[in-house]
Design brief:
Blueprint (H helix, E strand, L loop, with lengths): L1 H11 L8 H14 L27 H6 L4 H10 L12 H14 L1 H7 L2 H20 L2 H15 L5 E2 L10 E3 L7 E9 L4 E4 H9 L4 E11 L6 E12 L3 H4 L5 E5 L1 E6 L1 H4 L5 E4 L5 E12 L2 E17 L4 E4 L1 H6 L21 E6 L1 E3 L5 E3 L1 E5 L8 H5 L2 H16 L4 H8 L14 H5 L9 E4 L1 H7 L1 E7 L2 H13 L3 H22 L9 H34 L1
Parallel strand pairs: 3-5
Antiparallel strand pairs: 1-2, 2-3, 4-17, 5-6, 6-18, 7-16, 8-13, 9-10, 10-11, 11-12, 14-15
Helix pairs in contact: 1-2, 2-20, 7-8, 7-18, 9-15, 14-15, 19-20
Length: 549
């Protein structure tokens, strides 16, 4: 024990004053040379914070990982995360492809782990380990800061987190073969969270020649009682010079119905999920469709699926009479496109109707497909504070069209929004949101993009379940794909690091240690020796086994 104590003290007093991978291995080698043969203690059951396989804590630090792509810390991070692939079509952005690959892998881990190599398995394990740590151990603000270097380093190369000192509205810039230095803004929100940002800074981005600003949104699901993060959904939208008004302070938007033609015969299809008969005083036949939601102030901007009465039963004549309003709403017609708006509903006749489209998945096993579009001539939440009103917005929109028609760059328009005369007829001064300035009270320069907006116009990239059960299950399945020596190696390395720390951290206040303190230190030292021996054996077996393959 005294030999181990001397080694540890010697290493501790070196100039580096820290345990790096190199010094750790040197310590292990030297301890190995001193340890005597014998029966080693078995690795005890995992502590509460342990999983079946304990990975090193690769922390995505802001400076060394996020902002210094050439640093050693960044290299270590990329080494661990470098085997996460890309998935998606050619029209998907690089970030979308990366996140789709991640969510797809965890969607069916049992099948994907079967075909995965050990490097791939370790990379996905490390991603899940660090991502869960960020979201569950920190509040949204801190998690957001950690998410920035984390995502930037996933792409490697020159991709980096943008320092606030650069005055860039982008949080990270990633470099891919097709799109170098692409700007991305990142947000972590709850289910009802709104994307907010500086109107002035976004306009400056485009005034300086920026072609796009891509937003990646992480939406958290929380358990009802514990309020713990149980799942996340990734969304993406891209603001460009051409679609700027669709996102920033334009018209009010509303959900719309995505319909498809459905042929049906009442006598044949009445028992299907989308067609049903109701009894009671108003016996009727109902068809499933979506209708605009109504509130006290009119349209709510949402549509909801429900059954609406296609026809009512005339009990005296024992026939169903068509409901004209519903027939009009669903464009009820015969196969030859002859409109049907009234009269008796023929139970044996073939009809065609344009009703809401559903796809597999979601609550109840299927989800209604919804559109999202602007309501012309209406004002959204930001129309007045950013542009001055509907008329002012129209004037700015006209200016954007004329500048584009003249073949001039879009940056000329955004420069005008900031108050620079474009040389043609224009509103005569900066947009209201730009005139108020960054320090305006009431958030005059803040734009707001609601969940309905980015979900309606944006793109869903995938879901990721991160309940304790789901995470533990994934680690267990991953461990099953690896050899025992590899698991023992990682767990022993983690234990060795813990016990070396415990050996050093016994503080006796500069005095002779008490019997209790001395016992704690000795126990940590003994455990470190045992961990080192187990680690050595596991490394030899695991490395030798992989070399033989």
């Amino acid at each position: 024990m005294s030999d181990l104590r001397s080694i540890l003290k010697e290493e501790y007093t070196k100039k580096e004053r820290g345990v790096t991978p190199t010094t750790l291995l040197d310590m292990v080698r030297e301890v190995m040379s001193l340890s005597t043969p014998g029966t080693l203690k078995e690795i005890s059951g995992a502590r509460a914070r342990e999983r079946v396989l304990r990975l090193p804590n690769v922390i995505p630090t802001e400076i060394t990982v996020g902002q210094k792509p050439s640093s050693a810390d960044r290299a270590q991070f990329e080494l661990w995360m470098g085997n996460i692939g890309m998935q998606g079509g050619s029209d998907d952005s690089a970030v979308a492809q990366k996140l789709k690959a991640i969510t797809s892998f965890f969607e069916n881990p049992e099948a994907n782990l079967t075909d995965a190599t050990i490097p791939q398995t370790l990379s996905y394990m490390m991603f899940l380990n660090q991502f869960v740590w960020m979201l569950k151990e920190f509040n949204a603000s801190v998690a957001g800061f950690l998410w920035e270097p984390f995502l930037a380093s996933l792409f490697g190369g020159k991709s980096r987190q943008v320092p606030t000192s650069e005055g860039d509205i982008a949080d990270i810039r990633i470099t891919t073969p097709d799109n170098p230095n692409a700007p991305i803004s990142l947000k972590i929100l709850n289910k009802v969270g709104t994307v907010k940002g500086s109107f002035v800074d976004l306009v400056k981005h485009f005034a300086a020649g920026g072609s796009e600003m891509r937003y990646i949104i992480v939406v958290k699901e929380q358990t009802a009682k514990e309020k713990a993060v149980s799942a996340v959904t990734f969304y993406e939208f891209n603001i460009t010079a051409d679609n700027f008004f669709e996102w920033i302070g334009g018209s009010a938007y509303t959900q719309t119905i995505i319909s498809k033609d459905k042929a049906f015969k009442i006598s044949r299809d009445l028992k299907k999920s989308w067609l049903q008969a109701k009894g009671g005083p108003q016996a009727r036949i109902e068809i499933e469709h979506a209708i605009p939601g109504m509130g006290k102030k009119g349209l709510t901007g949402k549509v909801g699926a429900k059954f609406i009465p296609l026809a009512y039963l005339n009990k005296e004549e024992n026939v169903y009479v068509i409901n004209p309003e519903v027939a009009e709403a669903i464009n009820l017609r015969l196969p030859d496109d002859t409109p049907v708006r009234e009269g008796v509903l023929d139970l044996e006749a073939q009809y065609v109707a344009s009703v809401a489209e559903f796809k597999a998945g979601g609550k109840g096993g299927r989800t209604m497909q919804k559109g999202y579009e602007a309501i012309p001539g209406t004002a959204g939440k930001d129309t007045k504070p950013l542009w001055g009103g509907v008329d002012e917005l129209a004037a700015w929109g006209d200016l954007a069209i004329r500048i584009k028609s003249d073949g001039r760059p879009a940056s000329d328009f955004f420069s005008a929004v900031l108050g620079n005369d474009p040389g043609i007829e224009w509103p005569g001064q900066a947009a209201l949101g730009a005139r108020r300035g960054a320090g305006a009270e009431g958030g005059g320069t803040q734009f707001h993009i609601t969940p309905q907006h980015y979900k309606g116009l944006g793109k869903k990239l995938g879901d990721l379940r991160i309940t304790t059960q789901a995470v533990e299950s994934f680690f267990e399945r991953s461990a099953e794909q690896m050899n025992e020596e590899l698991i023992v190696m990682f767990n022993s390395l983690a234990d060795l690091t813990d016990n070396i720390g415990r050996f050093f951290l016994v503080d006796c206040g500069g005095q002779k240690c008490s019997t209790r303190d001395e016992s704690r230190r000795n126990e940590a030292g003994d455990d470190a020796i045992n961990d080192a021996k187990v680690l050595e054996d596991a490394v030899v077996k695991s490395v030798s086994g992989m070399r033989e393959k």
